[in-house]
Design brief:
Strands 5, 7, 8, 10, 12 and 13 form a 6-stranded mixed β-sheet that branches. Strands 1-23-22-18-19 form a 5-stranded mixed β-sheet, with no helix packed on it. A 5-stranded antiparallel β-sheet has the order 3-4-6-11-9, with no helix packed on it. The chain is flat and about 65 Å long. By secondary structure, it is mainly beta. The protein folds into 2 domains: 129 residues, Immunoglobulin-like (Sandwich), CATH 2.60.40; 144 residues, Immunoglobulins (Immunoglobulin-like, Sandwich).
């Protein structure tokens, strides 16, 4: 595999290297994300939804039906309302939801859910199915939609009275739909450090996806002393980069669980990121820990 290398310094000066675009093809699968639980302080509500992410590969004109499990682990019956919602990612990777509407990369208009509302008794689980039908002649690209679940009392009265409580009583299954084989075109545009209170510093890799496919990151960050000795090798988080978007990928230089940090000194950082292109993206920067 070729290497697409660039040096990115902490003062922001960049040495440009042209990106290489090749075909990216995602295998069809339901990503095995762990179930997520939502709790409400207003009543005994505890609900798990699985999977939280579904990744599909299809061609224009294709269709599929998938199941999402909703498990009521609480002590009260709960009313579950399911709806289709568009979403985007912030620069930091936080999902941002909006009312379903037709956009360039939206798959919401292609998606139907059943049932849209049901009551699940305590200790029971239910299935919500979505059917996604891609229109013929759809251009090859990475599309997306989501099934957004909202929870309320079985009587139909929403859980809680305040807006904040309603927001906390939502869980979404994100759906990625890669139609055809759109070439991937991603560039590593910046490397910078971020200091967090009471935590180890982070290296932030800024990736710009100019292609039409959704890609995912993998790779390593290697830390060297100023003398060239290898200190640590850390995995790059597996995160999505949406089509024609830019986002930050945060890589911890220490261990959050143990609180271990780098000793004081100056370090050279090398980040290697594979997004499915023929070339691996490589960036270098320096880090000073005081």
């Amino acid at each position: 595999m070729d290497v697409l290398r660039r040096v990115l310094l902490t003062d922001g000066r960049l040495y440009a290297v042209g990106a290489i675009a090749v075909a990216l093809w995602l295998a069809p699968r339901n990503a095995g994300a762990a179930p997520r639980t939502v709790d409400s302080p207003s009543m005994q509500v505890s609900v798990e939804v699985s999977p939280l992410r579904v990744e599909l590969k299809t061609e224009s004109g294709g269709s599929t039906t998938q199941a999402i499990t909703v498990h009521n682990t609480g002590s009260d019956a709960v009313r579950v309302r399911a709806s289709i919602s568009d979403w985007n990612l912030s620069m930091e990777g936080a999902p941002q939801f909006a009312t379903a509407q037709e956009t360039r990369y939206s798959a919401s208009a292609w998606t139907r859910i059943a049932p849209p509302e049901q009551v699940i008794e305590a200790g029971h689980e239910a299935i919500v199915r979505f059917t996604l039908a891609v229109p013929p002649d759809t251009a090859a690209a990475g599309y997306r939609t989501s099934v957004l679940f909202e929870f309320g009392a079985a009587s139909g009265v929403p859980v809680g009275r305040g807006h904040d409580v309603i927001v906390r009583s939502r869980i979404a299954t994100l759906i990625y739909v890669n139609v055809g084989s759109a070439p991937a075109a991603v560039d590593l545009t910046d490397l910078k450090s971020r200091a967090l209170p009471q935590q180890a510093q982070q290296i932030i890799a800024v990736l710009k996806n100019t292609g039409r496919s959704t890609v995912r990151t993998r790779g390593t960050m290697t830390i060297y002393t100023s003398g060239g000795a290898k200190v640590a090798e850390i995995a790059v988080p597996d995160v999505p980069i949406l089509p024609e978007s830019e986002r930050e990928v945060a890589i911890d230089t220490g261990d959050r669980e143990t609180g271990k940090r780098l000793p004081s000194g100056e370090y050279r950082i090398e980040v290697r990121i594979d997004v499915g292109m023929a070339a691996v993206l490589v960036g270098e920067t320096t880090l000073k820990v005081s």
